[in-house]
Structures are given as C-alpha cells and as structure tokens.
C-alpha cells in the first residue's frame, strides 16, 4: 500500500468530493452506465435513486472499486483512483447484504478495517463505533445471533469506524421493517451530521431518498435524469420518468395552443392546461404537462373560469380509496386516462362517491411542463409510460408502503 | 456435522426439536442397532483378542483368552518404528494432498463458479480415479516408477538416481502413492465449503482495506476451515492405517512398512492374532488422540 490513497493509521479529516468523469460501464450484452458525469460535494448526503437495473448499484461498485469502468475517470478528493484496487481507496461500503464476516465476533467485524490499516487502539475505536449504533452490549456475539436490524447497524458501524472520506450505502434499509427503517433513517442522518462524512446512498425507495438526502439524483437506464434537492425534484420534475417515479403524477400531452410572456397553454383532448413559462421545459409544439395528485381539488359543480386556475372536466369518479388521513380518487375523463386526486379528509361533507360527476381544478403554478418529446399520436394523448415493468412494480410497492404508513 | 461448525444458533434449535420428539429416538434405533452389531461387537472382540495368550504346547496360531497386557509392550517394542513411520507418512501425505487439493478446490469452487458445465466436468475428473480399482491404480504407479519405466529413466538421466537404484520401495514412492490416492478425499470437502463461500464477504474484505492476500488469510481460509478439517481427517485417518501403498507388492519395501502392513502380516502370515489386535488398538488410540488434539487446536470443537 505504498502509493495508495489510504495511509496507515490516520483518518480522513473530513468527507471528500467525489467526481465521476465520463464513466461508462459495459457488460457483455448490455450497457449499465452510459457516459455518466457526476460531482458530489464533500460533506453532503447524496442519494442515487432509480428502479432496479438502472445502473445505480453498478455506479456504487465502480466507486468502491469492485468493478472497473469501461471508460472514464473516478476522482476522490481530487485524486484519480480509477486504476486503484478497492482496498486502496478511502471508501467504505455498507452492503445491501451487510456482508458481515460470520466467523468473527461483532467486535472483530467492526475492528477489521482498523486492524488492516494498523490503527493502534482499534478495539477501543470499535467499541466506540458500536456505542454509536447502540450495540456495544452484543460485541462478543456472532453476526448470526443478531436480528436483521442489528446486523445492519453493525455493518454501518464497521464502515463508519474507518472514517472514510466517502461512505457508500447500498440499499442498506431494504431488508428492514417499516419501524426499524424509520429508526435507521434517523440514525444514519444523525451519524452523517455528527461525523461529517460524504454519504452516497443508493436506493430504489423514493421516500427513503427524499427523507434522508440533501441532493437526490434520479437515475434511469444508465443516465441521470434529474438531480436536485428532494423538494425541488418533487415540485418540478423535468421528465416523465422523474414525475412518475418520484411520487405520482397526472400527465397530459397536447399541442401548445397559446403562449404569452408568462405562460403557455396546452390543449390535451379538449382540456386546456396552463403552465407558467419558468416551469415549462418546452414551450412549443407537442408537450407533456402534469400536476401532482394532491394539488388537484374536486368540485361537484362546474367552477367558474378564472385566471390562474386550470379546470378539467367534467369526469366521473371511477374509484375511491379511503386511507384515513386522505382519500385517493380516480377520475375518468373522456380522452384521458384515469387521473388520481388526493384529498385531505378535513371535512366529511366534502366526500365524493363512486360515479359522481366532478371537475378538477388546480392552481396554474402547480403545473409543470416536461422535457420529453410528446406523444405524436393524437388518439393517445396521454403520455405512455415506457419504463420497464420492474420499475413500475417497485413504484407500486413504494406507493403501497407510503400509503400503509399514512394509514 | 462439519459444515455446521459455525452456526451455533441452528444447532440450538435442533437440540430443542430433539427433546420434544420421541419419534426421533425411534428413528435412531436402526442406526443404534447397526452400531452395536457392527462396531461395538468387533471392537470388543478385538480388545479381547489383543489380550490372548498362546495355548501352551498348542498348535501354531492357537490362542486362548487371558489378560496378557504384555502383548502391548511386545508390539510397541517390536513395531515402534513402523508405528511412528505410519503417522509420519500419513501426515506428509495429508500435507501434500492439502497443498494440491486446496488450489484445485478453489479453482473448481470459485474460479469456475460462473461456468457450471466446466465445474461439473472438473468435479467428474477429480472423482474419475474412483472408477478404477484402488489396487489397479497403485499397481499402475508401480509400473510407471519401475526401474525400466519412464520416470526412473528420466531421473537416472539427470543423475538423481544412481545406477540400479529404484524409485519404488522408497519413502518417496509410498508418500506419493498415499497423496495420490487421497487427493479426492481432500478436494471434495474443501470444494463443498468453497463452493458455498459468499463472495460478497471477499468483496467486503477488499472494501475494508485488506489486500487480496490478507483477505484470503482472514476471510476465505477461516471460512473454508470446516472443509480443510474434514479433508485432512478423511485423508490422515485412512492413510495412517493404509496397508496397500506401503506393501512390498505395491510401492513400498520392508524399509517403508507401515502399521497397516504389519497388522496385515501378523494376521495373515505370522498368525499372531493377539499382536495384530493389539497393534490395531494402538493405531486407533493414537489416531483418536491426534485427531482430538488437532480438532481442539483448530478451534472447532463443534466437529466432534
């Protein structure tokens, strides 16, 4: 380990910047990552979010040094580590499978990295790290004697104890039940602010990414679709993939029929939808626009046309699912697919029922215009989702989970 | 047994099931009867034979029951060298079999993991020698090592062997034969553990600053330990008692006689049954002690 980035006996002072420059990774038969550029500033909590098979785990493995990129460079703290082996990089990973050594005690597991680097008081530091995850009392046990959640915390302690410049988390909360996940999410966040490392978190769980990360990058088909603060991504998705993967969206496709200094108006199968210009990626031709379900209100009488409000309808409620805090309605309007609407259950009298005739209204500033090429076929004005079925399944699961949590 | 060495929790669960179920005891019955009939009975008979004394004025090979402890003193005095030699040869053969078998098992179990067809083919090749009789294979090596054979010819040419010297009948040929015959017994248990080795643990080792060599020493090898221990036991125990390789008719000579060869000669040629029985008991006792120490020192008491 003479010219490695990991020096013996000392820790990274703080998190380090991570820079990926033109990274590609091709496996025989398919491309996992295509010309990816990514910069993660030191000390940030960065989440890479995407469906399974989008290349996010490959990206993580490339950074950890477990795979070699086909092209491109990886820089950690400004140092090119592309050609170095995993054990030479100042990076630690919390593996999805935890990968705890079954033949060692918990303490030995946590002290493993320290011992390899010749840190003197490895045992004391390992105990400290175990205290941080509140598991010091099981330090003499074997991993097989711990529960999934405890193993996960040990895996975290084993990585954090090395004070790596960059900590990689590969869906570490995937195997935990809801309550434990919540606890771990908070703990992870605490540890991150306490030790000030750079965290790169890879997950398919949009909720996990949004609650924990400062910056979320949504990845699809080996490329980053959009990157930004969680709220920013949610309020103003740039592509249909982001709009539907990160939460739910109602999307409408149509020609831009009018445009003024502030906004554009789209005609989608008779529904006229106005989008503020700063929120529209494309301002002419065939575009796809959308709105989040919770931004839409239902009215049972035709509302008066007013500036600053989009009105679509009438339609019929085709499904109602009550979940305590809110009610999810599905509205079918001629020429459009089902549109979902979330209403807070603030008053009983506002409940709508299956088959009721309703109009949808939402404030113009809640609309967003997407960058995708619109659908050219006029008889299918709704945006057709072309995401792989796995992502749809994952999304459905995430939605169900979110709903479960609300209820 | 050997493979569950590192899963204490599972064993606890098993124990609790056994306690609750009388059916388990019932199912054990055929095994217990088998053990009593075919293990305990011959063992007792052997013990009794080892204490017999010759009938005074009787025929050659006629003995009667007694309590002649001197038989043990006699065999240890007479055959001490052969006994020590047996364990020395067996230990060497186990070591060589391990040195050859481990890389082989690693190659088949880990390197070839992504190629199931090649993996199966290599496994068949490891087992293939079993399709030919043990005796024939050992005889074949005698032919290969014979004075007119290719190996001896080559060794004479480069000057390792002097004129008239042979390879057969030397310690080398006996240890070679033992190693050769027991390589599959070493390879297969190690393969069984390496084949199931979670490679993500090896990746984790690399991620935690361990170089490939350190990862092998601290992760791969300890996880393969149950296989290594099973393999060495499966090699060492039968090799110590082996009477084919060291025999004059095969790869050995009188100078390379092992305890098995001596027991065979006492039973079948000298008809000194008490001596043969006493030697067998000694062999068994020494193996038990050696294996006990070995397993204890390997830190896997769960094996016993």
UniProtKB/TrEMBL annotation, chain A:
InterPro entries: AAA+_ATPase, ABC_SmlMolc_Importer, ABC_transporter-like_ATP-bd, ABC_transporter-like_CS, Mo/tungstate-bd_C_term_dom, P-loop_NTPase, PotA-like, Transp-assoc_OB_typ2
Keywords: ATP-binding, Cell membrane, Membrane, Nucleotide-binding, Translocase, Transport
Principal EC category: translocase
Catalytic activity field: ATP + H2O + polyamine-[polyamine-binding protein]Side 1 = ADP + phosphate + polyamineSide 2 + [polyamine-binding protein]Side 1
EC number, as in UniProt: 7.6.2.11
ABC transporter domain segment(s): 18-246
GO molecular function, one term: ATP binding
Domain of life, source organism: Bacteria
Cited Pfam families: ABC_tran (PF00005), TOBE_2 (PF08402)
Gene Ontology, cellular component aspect: ATP-binding cassette (ABC) transporter complex
UniProt function note: Part of the ABC transporter complex PotABCD involved in spermidine/putrescine import. Responsible for energy coupling to the transport system.
Family membership noted in the UniProt record: Belongs to the ABC transporter superfamily. Spermidine/putrescine importer (TC 3.A.1.11.1) family.
Subunit structure, interactors included: The complex is composed of two ATP-binding proteins (PotA), two transmembrane proteins (PotB and PotC) and a solute-binding protein (PotD).
Protein known as: Spermidine/putrescine import ATP-binding protein PotA
Organism: Microcella alkaliphila
Automatic annotation (TrEMBL), chain B:
SUPFAM superfamilies in the cross-refs: MetI-like (SSF161098)
Organism whose genome encodes this protein: Microcella alkaliphila
Membrane topology field: Multi-pass membrane protein
Keyword set, alphabetical order: Cell membrane, Membrane, Transmembrane, Transmembrane helix, Transport
InterPro entries named among the record's database cross-references: MetI-like, MetI-like_sf
Compartment(s): Cell membrane
GO BP, sorted A to Z: transmembrane transport
Protein family: Belongs to the binding-protein-dependent transport system permease family. CysTW subfamily.
Annotated transmembrane regions: 23-48, 87-108, 115-137, 275-295
Main location: membrane
A GO CC term attached to the entry: plasma membrane
Protein name from the UniProt record: Spermidine/putrescine transport system permease protein
């Amino acid at each position: 380990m003479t010219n490695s980035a990991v020096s013996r006996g000392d820790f990274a002072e703080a998190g380090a910047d991570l820079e990926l420059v033109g990274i590609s990774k091709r496996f025989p038969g398919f491309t996992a990552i295509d010309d990816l550029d990514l910069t993660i500033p030191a000390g940030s909590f960065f989440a890479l979010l995407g469906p399974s098979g989008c290349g996010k785990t490959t990206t993580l493995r490339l950074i950890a040094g477990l795979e070699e990129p086909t092209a491109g460079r990886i820089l950690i703290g400004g140092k090119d580590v592309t050609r170095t082996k995993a054990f030479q990089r100042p990076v630690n990973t919390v593996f999805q499978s935890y990968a705890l050594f079954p033949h060692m005690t918990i303490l030995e597991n946590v002290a493993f990295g320290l011992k390899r680097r010749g840190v003197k008081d490895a045992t004391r530091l390992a105990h400290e790290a175990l205290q941080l995850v509140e598991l010091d009392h099981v330090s003499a046990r074997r991993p097989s004697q711990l529960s999934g959640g405890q193993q996960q915390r040990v895996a975290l302690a084993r990585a954090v104890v090395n004070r790596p410049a960059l900590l990689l988390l590969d869906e570490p909360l995937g195997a935990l039940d809801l309550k434990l996940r919540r606890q771990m999410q908070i703990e992870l966040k605490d540890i991150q602010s306490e030790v000030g490392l750079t965290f790169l978190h890879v997950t398919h769980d949009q909720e996990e990414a949004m609650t924990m990360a400062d910056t979320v990058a949504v990845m699809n088909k080996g490329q980053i679709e959009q990157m930004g603060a969680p709220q920013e991504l949610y309020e103003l998705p740039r592509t249909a993939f982001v709009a539907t993967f990160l939460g739910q969206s109602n999307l409408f496709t149509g020609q831009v029929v009018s445009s003024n200094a502030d906004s554009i108006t789209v005609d989608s199968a008779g529904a006229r939808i106005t989008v503020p210009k700063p929120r529209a990626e494309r301002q002419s031709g065939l575009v796809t626009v959308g709105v989040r379900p919770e931004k839409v209100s239902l009215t049972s009488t035709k509302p008066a046309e007013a500036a600053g409000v989009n009105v679509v309808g009438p339609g019929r409620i085709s499904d109602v699912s009550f979940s305590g805090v809110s009610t999810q309605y599905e509205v079918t309007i001629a020429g459009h697919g089902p549109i979902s609407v979330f209403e807070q259950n603030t008053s009983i009298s506002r409940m709508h029922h299956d088959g009721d005739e309703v109009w949808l209204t939402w404030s113009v500033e809640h609309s967003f215009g997407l960058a995708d090429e619109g659908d050219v076929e006029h008889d299918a004005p709704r945006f057709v989702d072309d995401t792989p079925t796995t992502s749809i399944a994952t999304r459905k699961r995430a939605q169900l989970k979110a709903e479960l949590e609300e209820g | 047994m050997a493979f569950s060495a590192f899963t204490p929790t599972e064993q606890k669960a098993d124990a609790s099931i056994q306690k609750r179920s009388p059916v388990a005891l019932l199912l054990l019955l055929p095994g217990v009867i088998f053990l009593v009939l075919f293990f305990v009975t011959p063992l007792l008979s052997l013990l009794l034979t080892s204490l017999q004394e010759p009938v005074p004025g009787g025929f050659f090979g006629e003995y009667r029951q007694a309590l002649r402890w001197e038989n043990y003193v006699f065999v240890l005095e007479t055959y001490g060298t052969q006994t020590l030699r047996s364990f020395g040869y067996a230990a060497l053969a186990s070591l060589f079999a391990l040195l050859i078998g481990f890389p082989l098992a690693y190659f088949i179990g880990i390197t070839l993991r992504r190629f199931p067809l090649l993996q199966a083919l290599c496994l068949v090749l490891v087992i293939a020698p079993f399709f030919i009789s043990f005796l024939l294979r050992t005889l074949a090596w005698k032919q290969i090592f014979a004075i007119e054979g290719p190996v001896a010819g080559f060794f004479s040419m480069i000057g390792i062997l002097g004129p008239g010297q042979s390879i057969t009948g030397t310690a080398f040929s006996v240890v070679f034969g033992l190693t050769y015959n027991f390589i599959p017994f070493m390879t297969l248990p190690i393969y069984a553990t390496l084949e199931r080795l979670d490679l993500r643990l090896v990746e984790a080792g690399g991620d935690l600053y361990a170089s490939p060599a350190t990862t092998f020493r601290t992760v791969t090898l300890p996880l393969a330990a149950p296989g290594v221990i099973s393999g060495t036991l499966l090699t060492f125990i039968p090799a110590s008692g082996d009477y084919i390789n060291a025999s004059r008719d095969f790869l050995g000579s009188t100078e390379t006689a092992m305890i098995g060869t001596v027991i065979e000669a006492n039973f079948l040629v000298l008809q000194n049954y008490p001596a043969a029985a006493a030697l067998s008991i000694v062999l068994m006792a020494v193996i038990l002690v050696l294996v006990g120490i070995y397993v204890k020192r390997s830190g896997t008491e769960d094996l016993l």
